[in-house]
Write a structure and sequence with these properties.
Distance between the termini: 102 Å
Shape: globular
Number of domains: 2
Strand content: 25-35%
Largest sheet: 9 strands, mixed
Number of helices: 6
Length: 453
């Protein structure tokens, strides 16, 4: 009996020892794991420069610079988020060569941004008011061939951005606004109705610098909400209004510079190598151009002003709404002969494809139909699908045909519309150049890139 008890004691001792060792291993692992997480997140939210100076998280910095108020224009606390209201001028951000405005700061310090200027004007769709199925969504995000035209212009989006949270509810009127279903999938999208309404203070908002802009919120009777001169109203989806995309900045974004004013916007991007990327300013001789499309070996540029000034006007064509250099007295021929020959830097230009497909009800106002036909030339124009730059300019020709031998442009109200090909309008030429060595400048308006000729 005594031996059996001793054996049992030895067995229990071994079990207890094993349990103790396992417990110690678990506790050590547990401690190491959470110590690592603590150090990791401390470094994430308390970043430092190489020299040891503390960097500031952008969301926290913006809140520190804009104390919460309860009346007037400024930053408000609304249901756990911090929302800018009214005609504020301290919420500017520069990213990807674009100027943005801070809409709100979430409680985790992620930030919702909207472009300060519109980047295109398109019909929402032919008849559907479902944002998920809309042509505008395809233009904004990568979703197959000829999609994501805007998203592709965003620099290092996986590094800096997270998907937007969109409300999917259908809203019939402002009194019954709800948000019971959301989706978070897209890096770029349209602002929803609630966020626009929350930006108002006594009817004014920093967003009211475009006459008509689309919102992402659907309404009853196959309608869509949009902003019209500072008021929200419903519209049929086949109207051509402005697109001002939104993006969501990650909570870990660090302020590199800036104070949030238009002359000194917040910057969170780390130093970017010189490159001819989208929205960059480029100086060729005495002309200022803007990059609006970047390809592997080349870029497309649009003149940043009217060619010859605002009083020089031209007709598109005497006989056809197709952009063709073979038609005498057409704008296409003028651009590729008289204008081309006048350029001191014409040897930089390369021949490229210009897309000339129609944008009509027959094509269901699908911008992708623009890519169904093309011509080759040295000098072209915007088409409907291109990113648009400099909203201070209007009433100039695109190369996209409309119904009944008409041609597209923006009118003075910044809406997409068509007019007769024999009407006279201003022009903004577009060109293609190979990527080449930059010899001076940083790509900004005040210091445009100058290229090796």
């Amino acid at each position: 009996m005594g031996k059996r008890k001793n054996k049992n004691k030895e067995k229990m001792s071994k079990l207890e020892l094993g349990f103790t060792i396992l417990s110690l291993i678990f506790l050590i692992g547990f401690t190491c794991f959470y110590a690592y997480r603590f150090v990791h997140y401390y470094r994430v939210f308390n970043p430092k420069t190489v020299s040891g100076e503390r960097k500031e998280i952008m969301g926290a910095t913006v809140r520190k610079n804009n104390p919460v108020i309860y009346e007037g224009d400024g930053l408000y606390s609304v249901k756990g988020t911090f929302v800018f209201k009214g005609d504020v001028d301290t919420n500017y951000v520069r990213y990807s060569n674009l100027l943005w405005r801070i809409v709100k700061i979430y409680n985790d310090n992620s930030i919702l941004l909207i472009t300060d200027d519109y980047v295109n004007n398109l019909m929402w769709d032919d008849d559907s008011n479902d944002y998920k199925e809309s042509n505008i969504r395809n233009w904004l995000i990568e979703n197959g061939n000829n999609t994501g035209i805007f998203e592709k212009s965003l620099r290092d989006k996986d590094k800096y951005l997270q998907p937007n949270t969109l409300c999917k509810d259908n809203v019939d009127d402002l009194e019954s606004f709800s948000c019971t279903e959301t989706v978070s999938t897209d890096y770029a999208s349209l602002l929803n109705l609630n966020d626009y309404v929350n930006s108002l203070n006594d009817g004014s908002s920093y967003m009211n610098n475009s006459n008509n802009i689309w919102l992402s919120t659907s309404a009853g009777d196959d309608m869509v909400w949009h902003v019209s001169e500072g008021n929200v109203s419903k519209s049929k989806p086949d109207n051509g209004y402005a697109i001002k995309p939104i993006i969501t900045l990650k909570k870990t974004a660090v302020v590199q510079s800036g104070s949030g004013t238009i002359s000194d916007p917040y910057v969170f991007e780390e130093e970017v190598a010189k490159d001819l990327d989208t929205y960059s300013y480029v100086k060729l001789d005495n002309d200022i151009w803007r990059v609006y499309e970047e390809n592997k070996n080349s870029v497309r540029l649009i003149l940043d002003d009217y060619y010859g000034g605002e009083y020089n006007t031209y007709s598109f064509s005497p006989i056809d709404n197709k952009f063709s250099t073979n038609i005498n007295y057409s704008l296409a021929k003028y651009l590729n002969t008289t204008l081309y020959d006048s350029l001191s830097y014409k040897d930089l230009l390369v021949e490229c494809d210009w897309y000339t497909g129609e944008y009509t009800k027959v094509s269901q106002y699908n911008y992708k139909n623009v890519f169904s036909s093309k011509v080759s030339a040295k000098v072209g124009l915007y088409n409907v699908s291109d990113i648009k730059i400099n909203s201070s300019l209007s009433n100039y020709f695109f190369m996209t045909p409309a119904d009944n031998r008409m041609i597209y442009s923006f009118n003075n109200d910044e809406n997409l519309y068509s007019s007769k090909i024999t009407y006279i309008k201003r022009i903004r030429p577009a060109i293609c150049i190979n990527k080449t060595k930059i010899v001076d400048g940083n790509g900004t308006k005040n210091s445009p890139y100058e290229l090796e000729v």
